[in-house]
């Protein structure tokens, strides 16, 4: 009886600490330490060994460099150049500034690799601009938050790097697989924004389509910035870089572009960027380390076998299982950060999914998409919290509109869960050796 309930006590203790206000990484470490101290069958040195082993992956070295790339490009004023491209593309549509927000979000997702960083950028640039144009504050804030979810779906993606390292899945294949879902989410948000704009009378930004010449002019301004995803994905696909080397190359390119070409990043600014990068990277990697210890404890207490037996008892159908996985990660995303959720539960679920024929790249991209939605669900919706903090409005004010904008994102997630080809078609076409089948 005691052996059967131990894993649930571990999980329950963790959530209790989170509810009490402990940071997630500290809650993971404290509950793991407590049970290891109470269980004489586990040597305490294992905690140190697993914490170090959790970080012993070359792929994880990509994380600080992708963070650095996003920080440099954000500080270097890249968003204004992206606006100059997005405006002639979609500014003539009713609710033009809302569409520009989403399109810039799609572009910036290919640079930042982080949804929370993208939320800060989109909220700072577009919420005041939309409010000046007569947009409702709740809609402007909700749209900026929703558009930022593409930051971890359209490559490069820090969460995909973490997922690939944990699940031993090709990071490059996941990057390529994220393109179509990310674009579909962007288009679905634009459709939702158009409906709202028609009902509320939000104006277009330009009286007519500005033409191909204006788009080419905007492309000339933004082209160098948009080369970041080309360098990362193209370098990986071409065999020039590993994902970690691609992250280093992207950071170096971003530094050269903003410091020497655009001249928008100074030495003093770079020092601040490096400090912020170190802080963000330390938080992510500490969470990786503590989540690895927590996962070991759950495995030691045979939770994997219990979960596998439970899922097998419910269904053997891959589509039903994928939908159950989506539901699980929606619930997890409401209370957990994406990193510990992936580190703890993916090693449990992936063998079950593969046993019924779910492709690991398919599952990986769907899980990342679902955790992106979790960045909007309260109380742990970091993108929503960031947007509200910048807009200086209460969370309660955006609750209704935010959930309306979550509907198209949810529909795209379900669509990708049910139809694997939406994710796998590009990897199979471009890098068939990386997806296997």
Give a description of the structure.
The chain has 437 residues and is mainly α. It has one domain (2-435). It has 23 helices and no strands. It has helices at 2-19, 24-38, 45-54, 62-75, 78-90, 96-112, 115-132, 137-147, 158-167, 171-177, 179-200, 212-222, 227-237, 243-261, 267-300, 303-314, 318-335, 338-355, 360-374, 382-391, 395-418, 421-430, 432-435. The radius of gyration is 22 Å and the shape is globular.
Largest sheet: none
- Global morphology: globular
Count of discrete structural domains: 1
Strand content: under 5%
Unreliable runs: none
Q: Measure the end-to-end span.
A: 43 Å
Radius of gyration: 22 Å
Instruction: Calculate the mean pLDDT score and round it.
Output: 89
- N-to-C series of helices and strands: HHHHHHHHHHHHHHHHHHHHHHH
Task: Report helical residue fraction.
Answer: over 70%
Instruction: Count the E strands.
Output: 0
| Alpha-beta classification | mainly alpha
Number of helices: 23
Structure keywords:
437 residues, mainly alpha, 23 helices, 78% helix, globular
Short description, anyone?
With 437 residues, the chain is mostly helical. It is built from 23 helices and no strands.
List the helices and strands and how they pair.
Elements: H1 2-19, H2 24-38, H3 45-54, H4 62-75, H5 78-90, H6 96-112, H7 115-132, H8 137-147, H9 158-167, H10 171-177, H11 179-200, H12 212-222, H13 227-237, H14 243-261, H15 267-300, H16 303-314, H17 318-335, H18 338-355, H19 360-374, H20 382-391, H21 395-418, H22 421-430, H23 432-435
Helix pairs in contact: 1-2, 2-15, 3-15, 4-14, 4-15, 5-6, 5-12, 6-7, 6-8, 6-11, 7-8, 7-20, 8-20, 8-21, 9-18, 9-19, 10-22, 11-21, 13-14, 15-18, 16-18, 17-18, 17-19, 17-21, 18-19, 19-21
């Amino acid at each position: 009886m005691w052996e059967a309930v131990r894993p649930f006590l571990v999980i329950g203790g963790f959530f209790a600490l989170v509810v009490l206000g402990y940071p997630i990484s500290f809650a993971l470490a404290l509950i793991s330490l407590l049970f290891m101290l109470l269980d004489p069958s586990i040597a305490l040195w294992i905690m140190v060994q697993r914490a170090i082993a959790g970080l012993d992956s070359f792929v994880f070295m990509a994380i600080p460099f992708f963070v650095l790339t996003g920080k440099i490009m954000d500080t270097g004023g890249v968003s204004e150049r992206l606006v100059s491209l997005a405006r002639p593309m979609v500014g003539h549509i009713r609710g033009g500034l809302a569409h520009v927000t989403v399109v810039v979000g799609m572009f910036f997702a290919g640079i930042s690799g982080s949804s929370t960083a993208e939320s800060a950028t989109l909220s700072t640039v577009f919420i005041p601009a939309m409010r000046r144009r007569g947009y409702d504050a709740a809609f402007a804030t909700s749209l900026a938050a929703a558009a930022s979810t593409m930051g971890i779906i359209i490559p490069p993606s820090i969460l995909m790097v973490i997922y690939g390292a944990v699940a031993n899945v090709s990071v490059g294949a996941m990057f390529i697989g994220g393109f179509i879902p990310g674009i579909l989410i962007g288009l679905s948000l634009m459709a939702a924004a158009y409906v709202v704009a028609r009902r509320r009378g939000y104006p277009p930004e330009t009286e007519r389509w500005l033409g191909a010449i204006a788009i080419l002019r905007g492309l000339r301004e933004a082209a160098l910035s948009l080369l970041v995803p080309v360098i990362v994905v193209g370098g990986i696909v071409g065999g020039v870089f590993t994902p970690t080397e691609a992250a280093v190359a992207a950071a170096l390119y971003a530094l050269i572009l903003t410091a020497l070409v655009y001249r928008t990043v100074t030495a003093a600014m770079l020092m601040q960027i490096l400090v912020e990068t170190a802080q963000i990277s330390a938080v992510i990697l500490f969470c990786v380390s503590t989540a690895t210890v927590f996962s070991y404890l759950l495995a030691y207490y045979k939770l994997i076998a219990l979960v596998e037996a439970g899922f097998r008892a419910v269904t053997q159908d891959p589509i039903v299982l994928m939908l159950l996985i989506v539901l699980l990660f929606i619930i997890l995303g409401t209370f957990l950060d994406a990193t510990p959720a992936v580190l703890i539960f993916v090693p449990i679920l992936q063998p079950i999914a593969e046993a019924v024929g779910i492709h690991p790249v398919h599952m990986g991209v769907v899980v990342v998409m679902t955790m992106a939605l979790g960045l909007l669900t309260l109380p742990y919706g970091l993108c929503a919290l960031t947007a509200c903090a910048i807009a200086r409005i209460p969370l309660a004010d955006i609750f209704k509109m935010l959930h309306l904008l979550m509907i198209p994102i949810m529909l795209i997630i379900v669509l990708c869960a049910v139809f694997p080809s939406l994710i796998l078609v590009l990897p199979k076409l471009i890098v068939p050796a990386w997806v296997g089948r």
